[in-house]
Amino acid sequence: MAVTPVAATVGTIAALLSITSFAPQILKIWKEKDASAVSLRTYVVTVTGFACWIAYGIMIGAWPVIASNIACLLMSGAVLVMKWRFERRG
User: Fold this and answer.
1) Which of 10, 21, 22, 57 is disulfide-compatible with 75, CB 3.0–4.6 A?
2) Residue-wise pLDDT tens for the chain (90 aa)?
3) HEC assignment per residue over 45-80
4) What angle do CA 41, 89, 77 make, to 5 degrees?
5) CATH architecture, range 5-88
6) Residues near 80 by beta carbon (within 8 Å), at least 6 away in sequence
7) Do the beta carbons of residue 80 and residue 50 sit within 8 Å?
8) d(CA 7, CA 4)
9) Cβ atoms of residues 15 and 62 within 8 Å
10) Radius of gyration of the chain from its Cα atoms, rounded to whole angstroms
């Protein structure tokens, strides 16, 4: 199935917005060294979901799905790591 330019543009915008949506949370946690307001369960589910999307992308051979979800996994994983790191300090 061929992807139209409009569909490719919408997909690119969606991927960029999804990836960058984690940046404000990461910056806030890093700056304040506090992740107490972050839900551990939410981010465990989020990270797991992105891992599943990557597996799905691999299964269907869709590199845009793979690449965007790897980036999202890294960003949401960073939040999760900081949650654990700063929680153990306090």
Assistant:
1) 22
2) 688 999 999 999 999 999 999 999 999 999 999 999 999 999 999 999 999 999 999 999 999 999 999 999 999 999 999 999 998 775
3) HHHHHHHHHHHHHHHHCCHHHHHHHHHHHHHHHHHH
4) 40
5) Up-down Bundle (1.20)
6) 40, 43, 44, 47
7) no
8) 5
9) no
10) 15
Q: 50 burial class (0-12, 13-18, 19+ CB within 10 angstroms)?
A: buried
Look at residue 10 in the predicted model and tell me its pLDDT: 95
* DSSP-based three-state secondary structure for 85: helix
| 33 vs 31: CA distance, rounded Å | 6
